Inverse folding.
């Protein structure tokens, strides 16, 4: 890769899905030896959990798969729309919120839905596992692994053109 790719993953509170997406994507990038070409972060639509680590259940399930979730929750800011190339929401509600918060045509083009990058799973969202059991956290990780691999492939293809 020749250029830096700046990606921000976003969910509602930035304690389950988006920090997991950040962790999965960082690991995928590392596995491909592309760490120098990516800046990856996560944020939430709301500041309810600002400063907190990812949900302990999400960290536990992610750790079992080799992902280390170390980020702290923070809200999406106006500067994020200037700083990041892609701002990826986990579900349609996230997308609507992000599109409303975006300013200008360039910022709108940065907003994408996570599951648009899935290659194996045909779903419309990464569901919020917060109020469910273990299977919900595992499903989130399955979807994120699929989508992050698809996202990385898409970015590598764009780089080749």
């Amino acid at each position: 890769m020749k250029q830096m790719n700046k990606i921000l993953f976003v969910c509602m509170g930035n304690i389950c899905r988006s920090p997991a997406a950040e962790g999965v994507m960082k690991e995928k990038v590392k596995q491909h030896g592309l760490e120098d070409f990516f800046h990856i972060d996560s944020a939430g639509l709301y500041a309810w959990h600002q400063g907190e680590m990812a949900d302990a259940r999400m960290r536990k399930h992610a750790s079992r798969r080799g992902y280390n979730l170390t980020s702290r929750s923070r809200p999406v800011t106006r500067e994020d729309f200037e700083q990041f190339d892609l701002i990826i929401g986990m579900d349609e509600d996230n997308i609507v919120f992000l599109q409303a918060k975006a300013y200008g045509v360039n910022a709108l083009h940065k907003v994408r839905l996570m599951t648009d990058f899935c290659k194996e799973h045909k779903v419309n969202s990464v569901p919020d596992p917060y109020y469910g059991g273990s299977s919900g956290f595992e499903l989130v990780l399955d979807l994120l692994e699929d989508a992050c691999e698809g996202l990385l492939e898409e970015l590598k293809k764009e780089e080749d053109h």
